Amino acid sequence: MKTKGTGAELKARRRLAVELLADGKFTIFDGRHALGVSESSVKRWKRAWRKGGSEALASMPNPGRTPRLDPCEHPKLARLLLRGPITAGYSTNLWTCSRVAAVIQQHWGICCSTVQVWRLLKRLA
């Protein structure tokens, strides 16, 4: 479960924990209960602080999963979609997520769900 708070707030909490540990004001067990985190988190913060100082306690962005369709291919997909569904071989002039998924499958060999296509189209807009 992701901890709530801004990156600066989380870093301040981590720094407070390791400073109190370094000063001997409390133990890892005390820090765990005071901050509402696991013992392994407090140990990890302490290790990171020893290696890299307070900058090592900064929040790291979660990059997420690598997209199936490379972002450099988005302009090509947009051009294909702007040509229209009739040009793509459909009988009506209406793009659906299923049709866009079929175009992606045909051109890039990537199988996408309609939900993935919807998210991709929102990013293209």
Q: Tell me the total number of β-strands.
A: 0
Number of helices: 6
Q: Which structural class do you get from the secondary structure elements?
A: mainly alpha
Largest sheet: none
Estimate what percentage of residues fall within beta strands: under 5%
Span from first to last CA? 31 Å
Helical amount: 55-70%
Run of helices and strands: HHHHHH
Mean pLDDT level: 87
Taking pLDDT < 50 over at least 5 consecutive residues as the criterion, the unreliable ranges are: none
Question: What is the structure about, briefly put?
Answer:
This protein has helices at residues 7-22, 28-35, 39-52, 74-83, 97-108, 114-124. It is mainly alpha-helical and 125 residues long.
Structural features, described:
There is one protein chain. This protein is mostly helical. 57% of the residues lie in helices and 0% in strands. The longest helix is centred in the N-terminal third of the chain and has 16 residues, at 7-22.
What key phrases describe this protein's structure?
125 residues; mainly alpha; rod-shaped
Question: How does the SSE layout of this entry go?
Answer:
Blueprint: H1 7-22, H2 28-35, H3 39-52, H4 74-83, H5 97-108, H6 114-124
Helix pairs in contact: 1-3, 2-3, 5-6
